[in-house]
Design brief:
The complex is a heterodimer of chains A (185) and B (271). By secondary structure, chain A is mostly helical. Chain A has nine helices and no strands. Chain B is globular. The chains are: A mainly alpha (185), B alpha+beta (271).
Chain lengths: 185, 271
Amino acid sequence: MDDSAILRLYLARDEAALDETARKYGAYCAAIARNILGSPEDTEECVNDTWLRAWNAIPPQRPSPLAGFLGAITRNLAFDRWQRERAGKRGGGQTALALEELAECVSGQDAGGDLSLQELQAALRAFLDGLPSDRREIFLRRYWCVEPVGEIARRFGRTENQISTLLYRIRKKLRLYLTERGFEP
Amino acid sequence: MTREQLFQALGEAAAADIPGLSSSVRPIRRGRWGMLAACAALAVTAAALWSPHVAGPIPATELPPAAPPGILEAEDVPGSLPALRYGQIEMEADLSLAPPEGGLRCSLTQADITALIGDEETLDSLDWTGYTLEGSVIFRPDGTIWMLLLYGTRGPLDHFELTLSPDELPPTCVLYGGSAVNQVEGVEVYAERYDSGLGLSRRISFLSEGVGYRFALTGESGTAGITEERASRFLQYALREGLDLSAVSSEGSTPIEPPPSCEVGEPRRIN
């Protein structure tokens, strides 16, 4: 079923919307949650929470594309859960590694209320738009989908070392980009 | 900012991009089209097969009849890449191609390539990282450059050929009919495309600041977006930064053997 038909089910408050969403985007959202959480049980709960959030959000929202909307919900839920579990000495894995890598792009000082999330998101969008397509995809697979470097390397027919080097260069560029735009000292 | 804040901001910023993630892996295959796209390279590196009765560099005015100019938005959106319209190749004709008599040839060193194109940062911005770069230069007897060729190879169906000549569009061994002409930053850019089951090719030709450029890219089927983006990246770089042919010297070059004769082919229809 295409996205517009699924959206119509949500708008009509037809619970078939949840079945259709799970059928079309279940594996996709599960992959995102599994990359972040690493645990099958947590992944399943996170994906189910995603459908509930979507049900509560549509309407009034009419997201397009639906995949990005659902993926972002899953990612946020999974990351919140990962942070809670990490505080209890659980978790780790790819998320911890990806965060360590992202630490190279920032000072580490909590910007708190000084940080305009909207401005930062706009700047990040512009930065990503400026990257060649395959580099943008590699960057997003690593830091949005939290895919292991080895998996990205296989997907692109490159070595892990090549992908790591490429990611390092993009992170270096991002650090410079954020500093030039006043997001970092 | 903390790494967690960056991670979360990235989540919202890039959500719309995620469905576009492709899952293709680059296979290693070789096809006829790959060979065709490499024609110019073969014509010069194997100059012994080509005629001395040559068509020289082709002035822009002699290129095939042009399709209407492409619609470009580059100047409306600062920082964006030029959007090129490509003409579907319908006809092609072999052209006899040979270097000038008494000419000299030398291979490009990595230092030459860096001097000509730039460092890793530039290669990254051109999306050339991961390509093996090699090339050669052919000089006229007086030491001036006749043509420079640079090849980038990442696989049998993932490569490009860049040819440069001073003051004119570079010579070519295949003349294509069906070019589209685009106006980008005041420069006429001829663009051709060819798609087959085996792969695809895009070629752009233009003259800017005293240097003629021809950039031909070959990719697998399904990579038109990336291939055209790569062509646009190079075009934008060449128009804004330019490539300095004086960075290459004829030191260490060797004479080219005179090639046997070869006739110019009849035009033929493709497909």
